[in-house]
Specification:
With 381 residues, this protein is an alpha+beta fold. It is built from 12 helices and 16 strands. The strands form 3 sheets. An 8-stranded antiparallel beta sheet has the order 13-12-9-10-11-14-16-15. Helix 1 packs across helix 10, helix 2 crosses helix 3 and helix 3 packs antiparallel against helix 4. It is globular. Bound molecules: adenosine monophosphate. The site of adenosine monophosphate (AMP) has 14 residues, from strand 6 and strand 13. It catalyses: 5-amino-1-(5-phospho-beta-D-ribosyl)imidazole + hydrogencarbonate + ATP = 5-carboxyamino-1-(5-phospho-D-ribosyl)imidazole + ADP + phosphate + 2 H(+). One of its GO terms (cellular component) is cytosol. It is an enzyme of class 6 (ligase).
């Protein structure tokens, strides 16, 4: 692969915060950026040189976009396969469409993982209510029913506690094709954000630990509170997945860590990940620089972590009683603020994040939570 050098144009499908942070890195390194999505005035568009506003199904617009850029990557994996295939006729697309195709459907993803010997929770393919009832009898309860396509942040999933729940649960997911998955009684969730170049070079940020609230990532921190053995095993599994899929770019592997120390892969994201945002302030190079370097065929950078760090998401809910008190959150000099330029603060919408670094992971977590509380706290309480 010939390197795509600075001053070339990087095309990004999707226009949210992940594209924005990629665009910031690309701009810093002297690249031009063009984003493509059905919206305008977007978080990525505000940073990019050009913002194309068209439907992913508008293949003429996709062709025009792909002709205008030197490489195409994604910040949003749920673009239709045909869109990636069309773009690939005119520009290199990384990660390749097949990776996207697998990662955008839970059934394909889990089938890929299981058939290649990666650890996943037991699951069954569900097409009908009868399939579901049989699967619940086989797998046992509790179990989680998830739509096969287009799910994230706990959307499109429901917990089943008894065979009698099946009809209602299937109705809740609108009788769509689904996966029934055994419930994992996990101790914690960790993720590995990893990058792979076209020549097979590999880099990773180690295990990052994640805490969720209402199915949405709340706080991530690194180094994770896991043993050296677990850390190594998580990276080994992630590496195996990126190699098997021949990923060029960044891929994030989300794991459950069970109480008896076993790692189970929950999900793959063929891109940088919310849990990797702390790499911006805590590492020599961050996940977006790695994505840029990997898709442009440049050597991957060092991922060295300078200091333990923690990241807390800022959801739209924080705006409920007016503008958050930014200055108060930043009274701690080790806290950094990232806002994504979204115009409307809706409940549950990711508007930005805070990162704290400290001497220890625990102190970083405490600092970032305190800083977030300060955004809405009354000074006198
Ligand atoms: P997902 O959308 O698949 O990433 O799931 C969102 C969240 O639901 C996860 O972060 C877990 O907290 C929970 N979850 C998903 N699948 C399972 C499972 N098989 N067992 C237990 N909890 C689960």
């Amino acid at each position: 692969m010939n390197a795509i050098l600075p001053s070339s144009t990087v095309g990004v499908f999707g226009s949210g915060q992940l594209g924005r942070m990629l665009a910031i890195e690309a701009r810093r390194m002297g690249y031009r950026v063009m984003t493509f999505s059905p919206e305008s005035g977007t978080p990525t568009g505000q940073i990019a040189d050009a913002e194309i506003c068209a439907a992913y199904e508008d293949l003429d617009a996709v062709k025009k976009f792909a002709r205008a850029v030197d490489v195409v990557t994604f910040e949003f994996e749920n673009v239709p396969s045909i869109c990636a295939e069309t773009a690939a006729q005119f520009a290199p697309v990384h990660p390749r469409g097949e990776v996207l195709h697998i990662a955008q459907n839970r059934l394909r993803e889990k089938t890929f993982l299981r058939s290649n010997g990666f650890p996943v929770a037991e699951f069954r393919h569900i097409k009908t209510l009868e399939d579901l009832q049989n699967a619940v009898r086989e797998i046992g309860v509790p179990a989680i029913l998830k739509t096969a396509g287009f799910g994230y942040d706990g959307k499109g999933q429901t917990k089943i506690n008894a065979v009698e729940d099946c009809a209602e649960s299937f109705r809740q997911i609108k009788n769509q094709e689904a996966v029934l998955e055994a419930f994992v009684d996990y101790e914690k969730e960790v993720s590995v954000v990893a990058a792979r170049g076209a020549a097979g070079d590999f880099a990773h940020f180690g295990a990052i630990e994640n805490a969720h609230a209402n199915h949405i990532l709340d706080v991530s921190f690194a180094p994770a509170f896991v043993s050296g053995k677990t850390q190594k095993e998580a990276v080994k599994i992630a590496r195996g997945i990126l190699e098997t899929l021949d990923v060029v770019g960044v891929m994030t592997v989300e794991f459950f860590l069970t109480k008896d120390g076993k790692l189970i892969v929950n999900e793959l994201a063929p891109r940088p990940h919310n849990s990797g945002h702390l790499t911006i302030d805590a590492c020599l190079s961050n996940q977006f620089e790695q994505q840029l370097r990997a898709v442009c065929g440049l050597p991957l950078a060092s991922t060295a972590l300078f200091r333990p760090a923690a990241m807390a998401n800022l959801l739209g809910d924080l705006w409920e009683n007016g503008e958050p008190k930014w200055a108060r959150a930043l009274e701690n000099k080790n806290v950094k603020l990232h806002l994504y330029g979204k115009h409307e603060a809706r409940c549950g919408r990711k508007m930005g994040h805070l990162t704290a670094t400290a001497e220890t992971t625990r102190e970083a977590v405490e600092a970032v939570i305190k800083a977030r509380e300060n955004l809405t706290a009354d000074r006198h309480t």
